């Protein structure tokens, strides 16, 4: 798979480390009343969709930036990539 | 139709005209006591044990494609009970015992072959860890012995013992481990369940659950609605998709795992060998092909096929462990979708919805678990209590902090 890095162009996915669903950017509010349950959901539960999936890839053997890659989990087709830092920390979905 | 040596002889003398299909192909009835979603190894084993062990025969297995079309026919056929943690090891040892009696129980040749497994250690620390694991295996009655480097060199002279980075220091052997004919296992359970009255319904995809007042009362399928007293879901890599129809999110990600087989070679590898420094394991099929694999690709996938970086990684592992494998040509590779759970251990439990039960999260270790998974899931469906060897496999263990993390890597499914 080739990932279209916004700054570096097409890069081999081997240069990256995969973390998971991009919703991991949305860390729950630790001071909320429901924080314990919120964090359980955040840490353990996933949508795991068959189809378009927004996910976090770390360019470990490159410029060490975090990307949000949009990819189809049924075909492995990559539909786009953006720098995670360009998105607000909350509500990135 | 019972299989026996006499019957094979009789058929041989009469032109093999007496063989019949192994199971019926019935249309769904309007209602069943229990519906199993998923006609793979675990679903079929569950149906068999519901009928054979718990006497519940008004059961249907609903399969989207054909029986055994998923991971039961895609794995590397290894059976073993060499786990460490108390939540896991008694369960896998229970499974091992069921493997040992499976062919007699099912009257079907699933080619269970206890040809041993050897896990290689490459550092002193790893040898200590294997010694500890061996002790845990003995506590569950699974057996196991630590082999020295000299013993290993005698048994497996072709391994690269003096690799500068990964010298072989020791090995943990379980003699009772081995391999089985993977799709034969599915056929054996299917036939044995069908003979006891279970309806195996193929080309029947579940498209929704009927839920009234927090209780599942049936399923919608591509072959019409079917009522059910209880519904058990055993769909491996599709778990998240199916349970989403009941409004549930699971502690599971679906990942692709690849496997490989070489051209047929003369017998060279007796049992199963695993490389302890990289992720590589190999055995030899009865046809002679070297069957091997390694890590999952590492990203969410439902594609049933992987990419080349992992092919390369597995081949490198093979070359580091046994350089002679470089002379064998790769014949085929394929992929299957693993239900990778958040702690690397499975789930066999009720769900928040009454009448809906889940069997999932097998990661890439589901094949060896097939008999016990079916037994324990049938026990849960029949009695509403967990089987004694599966009490740790609760769905809510993550919230409660009772994860069963053999590798100790945390809630990161692609590392398990």
UniProtKB/TrEMBL annotation, chain A:
Question: Could you mention a single GO BP entry for this protein?
Answer: tetrahydrofolate metabolic process
Classify the source by domain of life.
Bacteria
What the entry lists under InterPro entries is as follows: SoxD, SoxD_sf
Output one GO MF annotation: sarcosine oxidase activity
Q: What is this protein called?
A: Sarcosine oxidase subunit delta
Query: Source organism lineage?
Result: Bacteria, Pseudomonadati, Pseudomonadota, Alphaproteobacteria, Rhodobacterales
From TrEMBL, chain B:
- Alphabetic keyword roster: Cytoplasm, FAD, Flavoprotein, FMN, Nucleotide-binding, Oxidoreductase
Main subcellular localisation: cytoplasm
List GO terms (cellular component aspect). cytoplasm
Q: What's the domain of life for this entry?
A: Bacteria
Where it sits in the cell: the answer is:
Cytoplasm
The catalytic activity of this protein is classed by the Enzyme Commission as 1.5.3.24
UniProt xrefs under PROSITE patterns: RHODANESE_3 (PS50206)
Describe the family membership recorded for this protein in Swiss-Prot or TrEMBL.
Belongs to the SoxB family.
Q: Can you say what this protein is called?
A: Sarcosine oxidase subunit beta
What is the species of this protein?
Answer: Donghicola mangrovi
């Amino acid at each position: 798979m080739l990932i279209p890095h916004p700054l570096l162009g097409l890069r081999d996915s081997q240069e990256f480390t995969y973390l998971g669903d991009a919703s991991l950017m949305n860390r729950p509010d630790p001071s909320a009343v429901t924080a314990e349950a919120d964090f359980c959901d955040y840490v353990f539960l996933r949508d795991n969709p068959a189809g378009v999936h927004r996910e976090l890839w770390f360019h470990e053997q490159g410029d060490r930036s975090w990307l949000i890659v949009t990819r189809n989990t049924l075909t492995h087709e990559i539909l786009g990539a953006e720098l995670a830092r360009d998105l607000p920390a909350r509500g990135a979905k | 139709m019972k299989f026996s040596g006499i019957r094979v002889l009789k058929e041989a003398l009469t032109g093999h005209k007496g063989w019949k299909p192994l199971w019926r192909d019935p249309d769904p009835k309007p209602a069943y006591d229990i519906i199993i979603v998923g006609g793979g190894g675990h679903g079929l084993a569950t149906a068999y044990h519901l009928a054979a062990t718990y006497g519940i025969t008004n059961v249907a297995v609903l399969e989207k494609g054909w029986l055994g079309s998923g991971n039961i026919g895609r794995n590397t056929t290894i059976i073993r009970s060499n786990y460490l943690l108390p939540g896991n090891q008694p369960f896998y040892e229970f499974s091992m015992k069921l493997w040992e009696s499976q062919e007699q129980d099912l009257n079907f040749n699933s080619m269970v072959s206890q040809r041993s497994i050897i896990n290689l250690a490459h550092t002193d620390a790893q040898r200590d860890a294997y010694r500890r694991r061996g002790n845990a295996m003995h506590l569950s009655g699974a057996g196991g012995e630590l082999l020295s480097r000299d013993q290993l060199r005698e048994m497996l002279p072709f391994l690269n013992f003096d690799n500068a980075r990964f010298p072989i220091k020791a090995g943990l052997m379980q003699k009772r481990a081995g391999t089985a004919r993977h799709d034969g296992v599915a056929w054996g359970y299917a036939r044995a369940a069908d003979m006891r009255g279970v309806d195996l319904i193929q080309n029947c995809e579940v498209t929704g659950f009927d839920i009234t007042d927090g209780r599942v009362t049936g399923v919608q399928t591509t072959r019409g609605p079917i009522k059910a007293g209880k519904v058990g879901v055993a769909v491996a890599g599709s778990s998240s998709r199916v349970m989403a129809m009941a409004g549930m999110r699971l502690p599971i990600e679906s990942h692709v795992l690849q496997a490989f087989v070489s051209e047929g070679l003369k017998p060279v590898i007796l049992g199963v060998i695993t490389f302890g420094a990289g992720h590589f394991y190999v055995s030899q099929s009865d046809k002679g092909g070297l069957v091997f694999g390694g890590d999952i690709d590492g990203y969410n996938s439902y594609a049933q096929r992987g990419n080349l970086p992992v092919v390369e990684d597995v081949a490198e592992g093979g070359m580091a462990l046994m350089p002679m494998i470089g002379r064998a040509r790769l014949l085929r590779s394929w992929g299957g979708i693993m239900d990778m759970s958040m702690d690397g251990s499975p789930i066999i439990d009720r769900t928040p919805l009454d009448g809906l039960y889940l069997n999932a999260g097998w990661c890439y270790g589901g094949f060896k678990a097939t008999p016990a998974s079916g037994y324990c899931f049938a026990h849960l469906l029949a009695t509403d209590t967990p089987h004694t060897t599966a009490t740790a496999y609760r769905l809510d263990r993550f919230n409660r902090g009772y994860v069963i993390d053999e590798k100790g890597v945390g809630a990161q499914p692609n590392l398990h």
